[in-house]
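Reviewers asked in the last cycle whether our approach scales beyond single polypeptides. To address this, we selected a multi-component target totalling 853 residues and predicted its structure end to end. The input consisted of the following lines:
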Amino acid sequence: MSILGGGIFKGMAVTLRNFVGSYFYKERLITNDYDWRPEDKLPQSIGEYPKEEGEQLRDTTTVNHYSRNFPMLLHDGGEPMDTVRCVACQICERECPPQCIYIEKSEDKTERSDNKAQFYPAKFDIDVSVCMSCQICVEVCPFDAIVMNSQFELSTPDRFGGLLVRRDDLLKSNDYYHKIHPQEAATRDQKMVADKAAKEAKKKAAAEKAKAAAEVKAKAAAEAKAKEEGE
Amino acid sequence: MSFQLIIDILIATVPLLVIFPSLFAFTTWMERKALARIQNRIGPNKIGVPCTRVSLFGLGQPAADGIKMIFKEDIVPRGADKLFHLLAPILALIPAMLILCFLPLEFPWGKFMSGKVQAFMLDSAVIFFFAITGLNTLAIFMAGWASRNKYSLLGGMRAVAQMVSYEIPLVLSAVIVVMMVGSLNAKEIADAQSGFNWFVFSPWGLAAFIVFFIAALAETNRSPFDLPEAESEIIAGYFTEYSGFKFALFFLGEYIAMFAISGLAVTLFLGAGDGPFVDAAPWMPAMWFIAKIFGLIAVMIWLRGTLPRLRVDQLMAFAWKFLLPLSIFNILLAGLSYFALDARVANTTDDVIHYVNSGNPFAGVPELGTNEALMGAMIYRGMAGEQNPMAAKKWFLKAALKGHPASRTLVAWWLGIWVLSLVALYVMAKGLNNLSRSTTKPREYLYAE
Amino acid sequence: MTQEITFWVLAVIAVLGALVAVRRRNLIHGVFALMIFFAALAGLFLLLMAEFIAAVQILVYIGAVGILLLFAIMLTERVTGDDARDITSRGSFWGWAAALAVLVFLLLPAIQGADLSQTAQPINPSVKALGHQMMDPYVVTLEVLALLLTAALIGAVAASQGGEKKKEDTDDA
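The resulting structure, written as structure tokens, was:
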């Protein structure tokens, strides 16, 4: 028979242990201390945030690498729009629960690294004030083109334009992704390579199959021809 | 009305208007810090002295929050009842501030009335306290209804149901103290507990204090009874459509109500301004009073960090099937044990006085501690000044410690009654707990229809 | 002087509150206006040094009756209270006439006939005295009232339980 209200005291003992322990054992703390920004100047919009990689990383390495805050678009290095992974399929736009993504598909196609012409997003805007950081866009993207950033200092004095993030500000390199979320990025790259290999194998198999079928067909045709000739 | 009287009134009321809002600011900081540490986070630690990087453990955070609240845009929904939307936060704050006046908090700087002033000394302070606390319910309902938002209305309805239910055990546990002291006057209740005669040190007082504290948590919508503002279910309840300064007013009102109801708990059960070194300085009682309030607030914060929120059916079952029967049983038990003990004291008094009257007690070898027992008897009979059963019991206790046989029997009875009451209360609480457990499982509950 | 000013202020608030409570079509506004009336009445009791009665006035009428009214309105269909109009009726002339007649022919003579100097007997308004009064000469009344309220409570529970049972029975049949 348990003591009446004993559970409450047990719980209170646990929270007390956490309370006192967090002052003595640094490894208990799950968050990092925030550093003051070096300058007090506020950027007018999110796009104005320092574009230098080091300065950007200061923002994101302050937080734990499990932090997910806001989506970004991935490119594979070099000139962003040449290697952007997004093909403007607009699945994320449809799936977004608060409808904060706006995409305009391009008219023309561009050549990609795998020598394949693809559409690209002419416009890709996300409204920070509407986004609820649910990560559903990341889940549904078939091209691994949109992932979560952990940049958190998004305040601006302009509450309309300043909170709308444009395509060029959303584009981040895969290297940056590796720096802020190393585990997730590595897993994603592995998966992408595996997918590509599987796809290529499939393609190869399909090609072989087609070749075999063509050979069979040719053989059959030759046989038929021979037969015809024989008759 | 003399000038001196006006000065005294200001001395009595202005500290209430200064101390408690500043305590509110400090409490918000303390709560955020404590909750953060309970969850192994750091909490606010950046804002301290303005325009510098001196952080002072983030003590400037409440001021920064206040400035933010004042300058935030005040949004009124288009469909809202504009007048009620404006009135609700004001109506939430005024009763909370008003009930502070009924606390027996004495400030030592007055000149008009023997140097000590209390804001509002009423003969029926306790009942006034409960009457005006009830107005808070109206403010919350008003906010929920005027916002014209389903979550607000749900929150408001939940708040009304919860506060109406928990007011009953709250008042019933306060009734015990009123019964024991024989007065509704907060000052008299405080005086009756001076010299560490705190009511929480008796079995019925302990049970009543626990019931009172739980009901007070529910009454001020604190976790684990924060269903009216349950953020995972109904966004922010009746707060949903409030922003900026109106929200700040609500917040302030809620915390002031917490202080006030803790103050009443301190008055009724924890000896008001009584404590060690209470006579050392004239401001000591007020200090002790506020320190005790703060202790209770700290426990509230601790509980908020510990307990999850109750379900609605659990909430109602707990109020009506557990707290209410327990507090009624406690009233009966308190009356019985009081009269049983009183009868024993009267008996002992008769014995002592008979022993003294039956001859010269100092002729032979006098019984040990006779003087103390005689003192107790005289005080009990009212032969030495005013009748005071409490003080008489103390003298009998002294006599028993010295070895007076009759007093020793009395103390044995006393202890026996207390242990028996404690056991009875525990058994009753345990039984009620088993009976009041909600037997419906969550799943069945959901698909009952 | 201050007492008279306070009296008039409270009296005007009470009358206005009562008028608004009667005339508003919006039920919630009406209930809150009624509560203002109750609060002003409590203030009048305080002015008469009857603090216990004032406390009970707030506790029972604002705290309990008001909340009960709000709950009752919440169960109706007029929760939203969109109607901002006042109640108008064609027979208002006869209503005013009847009220005036009661005032002139019944209340005024009664007030003028009353010996006001006699009612100003000093009474002990303290809670203790009130308690003794309730427990000594009026104890039977008090107990009968308590019995009545308990009976009403049990009756309400029985009524609500009985209805449910009947419904179940019909379901079974």
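Chain B has 16 helices and two strands. We regard this as preliminary and will revisit it once experimental data from Aim 1 are available.
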